[in-house]
Amino acid sequence: MKSKVLMLLTAFAVAGATVAQPAAATDGHFLHGVGAINSTMGGVGIAMPADVLGAVYTNPAGLMAFENTRADFSFEMFKPTMSLSSTHPMGFSGSTKGTTEFTPIPALGFSMPVGDRAVVSLAGLGIGGFGVNYAAASVSSTGVPSNPILAPTTVGGFGQVYSDFQLMKIAPAFAFAASESVWLGAAFNFDWARLSVMPAPMTNPDMGMGMTPGGPAPMPFYPDATAHSSAFGVGIQLGLTWLVNDQWSLGLAYTSEQFFEDFEWNSTNKAPGSEGFGFPRTFTFKMNVPAVYGAGLAYRTESLTVGLDGKYITYSSTDGFKVDQVPPFNADGSVAGFAWDDIFVIATGLEWWASEDFALRAGYNYSDNPISDEVSFFNIPAPAIVQHHLTAGLGWSLAENVELNFGYYHVLENSISGPMYGPGAIPGSDVTSTMSENSFLIGFSFLGN
Fold this sequence. Notes:
With 449 residues, this protein is mostly beta strands.
C-alpha cells in the first residue's frame, strides 16, 4: 500500500511539472475527452464509465463502477496545425503558418472503495486551453506586408501574435449507491490556469504615432501580457447514473461555472511618441470557465459497450467570454471578452473486448463552433473553431491487474472568416483563422484486487 501511495504522489508531482505547457482546444476550449481510454471513445463517459479519468471528467457518479482500487495514468502528445490569413482593404493579402509543437498533457486518477456502497477518488487532469504563435510579417521595399494583420505595429498591424492558455483541475471526488440501480456522485474542483497574450487587447491601448498611407498619424498600441499570469478557481461537479437494467444505463451531469481570481500582468507602454512610452503598466482580466450540462446513454453486452453523450456549454454568460455588443469594444478601446456563443457537443463511442486481453475503441465527437465569423478578428489568439473529432484506440492486458492503452485522434480542419475592425468593421478587409489537430495518447491502468 505504501508503494502505491508513493507512486500516486510522484505522478501528481510529474503532472504539476508538465501540465504548464501550451495547449489548444477541441470542444470550445475544453479537451473533448481525457486519457487514453475516454478520449479515444469520443469523450463519452456520462453513462459509460470506463476509467477513473473519464468518470471524474464527465460524471463522478460513474466511479461506483469500479469495485476495487484503481489507478489510471495517461500522457497525451497534442499538436495543432493552424494558419492566419488576412486581406487589406487596399487589396494586398497574405497568409502565415503558426509555429506549433507537440504539447504534453498529463492526466492521472485514483479511486478506492469505502465499504460496499461508496467510492472515493482523487484526480489531476489537464482539461483544456488554447494557444497560437504567429511571427510578425515581413515588409517589402514598397511597404507592403506579407500578411497585413501581422504587419509591424507602427504601420497598423498586430506584429507578432502569441497566446498561451492552460487549464487543469485537481478533483477530490466521491460516489455512493443510493440504491442498487441509482448512483450519485460529486467532485470539488480546485482549478489552476495561466494566460499569456501578445498583444493584450483586454486592456486599453496607449495612443502613439504610427505610419499610414497618408503619413504619420495617431494610432492605438496595446501592451503585451507575455509574462504568464496564473490564477486559481473553484467549482463543483454533480452526477447521477441510473442502471435501467443489465444492458442500459442513463446518466446526468452538471459542472458549475468555475470562478477564478483575476489574471494580473506587469507590462509597459508600447506607444512610440507618447509621453509614457516605455513606462510601466499593470492591468487585469477575469476569465472564468463556463458551466457544462450533460446527459448520456449507454448499452452494454458482455464484450461490447456503446455510449452516446450530449453536452451544453454556457460560454455566452461566462466572464471573459460574454459581451454586451459586437464589436465587443469598451469605451476605452479595450476588448470586453472573446464574444463566444453557447455550444452543443454530441459524442458517441464504443469499446469492444475482442478477447479477455485485447480491446478496440473508437468514437466521434462533434462540437458547435463558439466563434461566429463576425468576431473572427477578436479571436486570433484563441481560434477554438474545430468541430469534427475522429478517435480510435486499443487496450491490452499486460498482466492480471495491468492494462496498457494507446490512442489517437484527428480533428478535421475548420476555418472562420470575418472583417477587421478599427473600431467599426472595415469594408474590403478579411481575417481568416484555420485549424486542425492530431494527438497521440498512452496510458496505464492498475487494477487492485
